Amino acid sequence: MTHDRSRPLLAGNWKMHQTLAEARALASAVAAASRELAGADIILAPPFTALAEVRRALAGSPVGLAGQNLFWEEKGAFTGEVSAPLLKDAGCSHVIIGHSERRQHFGETDASVRKKIKSALQAGLVPIVCVGESLGEREAGRTMDVIAGQLEGGLDGLDADEAGRIVLAYEPVWAIGTGRTASPDQAEEVHGFIRGRLEESYGGELSSCAIILYGGSVKAANTCSLFKEKDIDGALVGGASLEPGSFIEIVREAIKGRKERQ
After folding, report:
1. Average pLDDT over residues 217-221
2. Burial class for 250, CB neighbours closer than 10 Å (0-12, 13-18, 19+)
C-alpha cells in the first residue's frame, strides 16, 4: 500500500484487545465499509494472535494490515518476540514502532526505535514511527525539544530513500486514552515543526510528501477539524477503532475535513 498526501490515512491500533471472533467481526465490518470510503487509506493493527484471522477477513478489500511492534533481529533465540520478516509473511504492510506505551511500559528508546525502523524497511514494511511529549514536558515548554530529540535519535543514519518510506505519527502522551485531545492548532503546530525538521534533514521534496498522522483520543467529533489543518495527513486511532461504527465515522469525517481543507 502506497500513500500520498491527497488521501487521509487512518490506522486503527487495537492494542491488547479483541478475541479471534471479535477481530473477525470488526475487520469484516471495516472491510465492507471500505468500499464506500474510497477517499481514504485504511490500516488495521490487531494483536499478533489475530493477524491471520484479520488477514482473511480483509481479503479482497483495500484495507491494509499492520503489526503493533517488532524486534529488530530477523530470527533467532528471542522468545516472545516477532520479527519483520514474520510480520511480512503474516500479510502485514505496516508496523507501528515506538508507540508511547512501548516507551513507557517496555523500555523502548530512540536507539531501539532506530534499529526497528531499519529492520522494518529491510523487510519491505512501512514503519509508522511514533513521537510525542508527556504532559509534564508540554507544561514545561519542552514539546519541540522532545520531538526534535526523538526524531534525531530515531531517524539517525537513515538516508533520504529510507526516510521517505516512513510514516510519522505525532501522539501527545497526555492525550492518549485520557479523552483529552490536542486542539487543531496545537496539533498543527507540532506537525508543522516535524515537517520543518524533515526539510532540514532531507530537503523540501521529501518533507512536502511526508505522511504525518495525529494520535491521541481521536474520535468522530474532533476528526474533521483536525483534518482541515494543512500538515495533518491522517490519524492513529486507539479506542475508537474497536467499534466499527465509530471508526468508520472517523474515516468519513477525515475525508470530509480533507475536502474542506482543499
Report:
1. 92
2. buried
